[in-house]
Amino acid sequence: MLRHALGKTFRFLGYTVQYGCIAHCAFEYLGGIVVCSGPSMEPTIQNYDIVFSENLSRHFYCIRKGDIVIVKSPNDPKSNICKRVIGLEGDKVCTSNPSDFLKSHSYVPKGHVWLEGDNLRNSTDSRCYGPVPYGLIRGRICLKIWPLNDFGFLRESPNGHRFLDD
């Protein structure tokens, strides 16, 4: 009787560990569902929109300008932020706010990206904390799931003029 109970317990623990490892790998390497909060990505992503974030792009260095990414916050490593990639390493970016009369520019250093929210007037982004190391990128948002009337791929940046070409 005891042997039977121990056998069932160990089988249950074995399955739990196996499925836990599979779930961990799926969420770490494939992607997951994310609830976005805050106004920094409006109008593209509203407060409490639900999106799907895929994680393969960051592993294969396939992040491009214009992509919306989930990143570990440079200010608070316990939280994630959602921003749009404005510049990749070597790109010239505008580092000033839209309201500034004199515009300043800089180059994104090797191994970094320049991130900005779509809501430039209400976003804490690379204009505040500088370029972000590529290693902090957790995933790329590719699909909006909720609300259903806005289901689909995300639209382009309302701030396309901020992308500089040299």
Mean pLDDT equals 82
Distance between the termini: 76 Å
Helix/strand-derived class?
alpha+beta
CATH architecture: Ribbon
Radius of gyration of CA atoms, rounded to a whole number:
20 Å
Number of helices: 3
CATH class: Mainly Beta
Oligomer: single chain
Fill in the CATH topology: Umud Fragment, subunit A
What is the strand arrangement across the widest sheet? 1-2-9-3-4-7-8
Strand proportion, as a percent range, falls in 25-35%
GO molecular function: serine-type endopeptidase activity
EC number: 3.4.21.-
Pfam family, one: Peptidase_S26
Protein name: Mitochondrial inner membrane protease subunit
Write up what this structure looks like.
- There is one protein chain.
- With about 170 residues, the chain is an alpha+beta fold.
- It has a single domain (about 30-165), classed as Ribbon (Umud Fragment, subunit A).
- About 20% of the residues lie in helices and about 30% in strands.
- The protein contains three helices and nine strands, in the order αββαβββββαββ.
- The termini are far apart.
- The relative contact order is 0.19.
Q: Could you list some keywords that capture this structure?
A:
166 residues; elongated; alpha+beta; two-stranded antiparallel sheet; Umud Fragment, subunit A
